[in-house]
Amino acid sequence: MLRRLYDFILSLAASPRAGLWLAVVAFAESSFFPIPPDTLLLPMALAKPERAWRYALICSVSSVLGGLLGYAIGALLYEQVAKPILEMYHYSAQFEVFRQRFAENGVMIILLKGLLPIPFKIITIAAGVAQMNIPAFIAACIVTRSGRFFLEAALLRRFGPPVRTFIEHRLMLVTSIAAAAIVGGFVLIRYI
Question: b or e along 45-81 (b: 16 or more beta carbons within 10 Å of the residue's beta carbon)?
């Protein structure tokens, strides 16, 4: 079933309303949907490289707005909505530890985890449950989601189809390097 959903999402990339679908998928993935927007962003940016920046912007804005819905689910509807979502993805056990970490390091968690190919909805819901400071939450989401999507767009514009294969097979490596660069930047700022 998940494979059929993935194939359906890829078919949307060829649609005349691909930009709208990209916004819908990016919004939904940040709060409840299992397929990441990268599945649309990659083929769309390859098909029309001149629009890669636009597509990255659509993903970024929609993902942050969807993150606010995820936050609201966690903050206002944990028992009714968030808990069943977490159980559906088998994240309940890990969630309590994750929630405690948000109290101490919420911004850093969003910056790191938002770049990685893990379900962003888990992070946004956790931020809501932990009642993370909303302006800090929004700022961290903007940085991490824009960083991820604009990095992908830049690589696709520069290197084209070979980078798509590389990203699809080594997405964890690419986003981990980007996450390390962000952390390194914060370390430099703090200690210099």
Answer: bbeeeebbeebbebbbbbbbbbbbbbbbbbbeebeeb
